[in-house]
Fold this protein.
Amino acid sequence: MTALSTHSHPYSLLSALPSGWVGEILDEELVASPRPGLPQSRAAFMLGVELGEALDKRRGGSGRWCFLRAPELHLGHDLLVPDLAGWRRERISEPLDPGVSFLTLTPDWVCEVLAPATTGLDRTRKLPLYAREGVSHVWLVDPDARTLETYQRVKRGWLLTGSYEGDAWVRAEPFSSVALELGSLWLPEVPEQTSFLHAAP
């Protein structure tokens, strides 16, 4: 994660970021994060698949939610890019315009997939902004620790409502109707290499 402080307006610097970096504007400061690693990419993709198949109409689910991967959110003066975001269908009055590159409608749920370079950003800077803008639920997925933390917004900030690890089966708000296999989010463990000594014939 890199904070870029210049006299230029932060929006003007977004296009200058190196390929593969994600730019966000937090409290009028441009913050650049490296492209997610393989464990983070796997966790975000599989979580989207699991929830989408159960709850998103386009995936044959119930149609109660609309999910997007890494959407650009313009919330107040901030530009945020969560790893996943979801909106309840009743809050989306019209179909999303495919020509629009960002959204201004606050999600009902966001998920941040933690990485060593972004954990501090996600926990200490983005969580307060999500609370301020009215996001109701946040999930923090840590592929390295193989954990999931679920939070619900309350008057004073965030309330930790659940903590799960390993291969647990999870039913967590706001998706308590879905049984999520947490183990499906992680990369398969690499088996230990066994070396054999071969005797000369």
